[in-house]
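Sample intake sheet
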Amino acid sequence: MKIYSKILGIITFIISLFFLCLLLYLLLFDDYNAEKRVILLIGLIPVYIVIHFTVIHRFGFNLNLEFTAKQRNTVLVTSLIIFGILLPLIGWQISETIALFKQEKIEEKQSEELYSHLSQLRAFDKQMTAYGFEGELQTKLSDEHSLLYKLKINSKKPFNPDLVSFTIEFHDKDGFLIKSINIKDYTRIVDGDKVFGIVSNSKTDSWEFSTEEVKSIANWRLLIASK
């Protein structure tokens, strides 16, 4: 029984120490959100209890004997060392977790405010082309990856939509291209048997945009090309 208790005590201490080091490594070096950090911090409690219990019982050695004064001092000093190491680490990690939780809440609020702003209907300035086409565009963000739109292109002269292609370009405030979209789905605006424009909207299609892409859009450009 004494040999068994010794082996069990040593194995228990080694396993507990391994999990302690693993939890501390994950807390210190891995990128976790606030909720996962709380779970890891809670996991430190049973690990510490097992280590403390193992140390008090002298790792299974002389399990049923009374403590001498020297042994009591040894156990006390060992426990204080372990507790002294863990307490600052746990306290620091708790403060880091609280700070991370607050930062996540701030970012979540900012994201909600940004989405609320971008989900409002936005009307862009009209665009004229060298071929006499005039374009009108309105957009709004429907979710994190879809941009709803209403596009209307008019021409003073009749034209054949089958012979031209329509392209929309979005640019940031510095003039750099964000995304270029070829308009394929549209309804013709006719007067008699002649076509004077087209209308396209998100009832038949939507554009894939990230929130950051929509946020960076400053202006647009209408391009007309012959097929």
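Comment: Residues 2-118 form one domain. The chain has two domains: 2-118, 122-226.
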